[in-house]
Specification:
About 100% of the residues lie in helices and about 0% in strands. The chain contains one helix and no strands. The longest helix has about 100 residues. The relative contact order is 0.03.
């Protein structure tokens, strides 16, 4: 009987050791998974920040190009209006004068 009790105690101790080992492995796996999550998030954040910076540069360059184009168009339109005025100022002045006298 005593031998049976010792065997049962031995089996119980082995089961407890096995359970502790499994819990330790699970804890190690949980820590590893958490560390991997942090690493992946960090890498993802860096990639996202880099992508955003590149997109911002692209948009800045695109905006600058559009602004330069608009400035060229505005300058061309102002030149056209200046030429029109210079070519037609006598007629325009006379026209305004006649309108005022009416």
């Amino acid at each position: 009987m005593e031998e049976i009790i010792e065997k049962v105690i031995e089996i119980d101790n082995k089961a407890k050791r096995f359970t502790r080992q499994a819990e330790d492995r699970k804890e190690g796996a949980d820590k590893y998974i958490q560390a991997q999550r942090i690493l992946i998030k960090s890498e993802s954040d860096k990639t996202l920040a880099n992508d955003l910076a590149n997109e911002q540069k692209r948009l800045d360059m695109q905006t600058k190009a559009k602004l330069m184009q608009a400035e060229k168009q505005e300058a061309a339109e102002l030149d056209r209006l200046d030429k029109f005025y210079e070519q037609n100022k006598a007629r325009l002045v006379a026209q305004v004068f006649n309108e005022v006298l009416k």
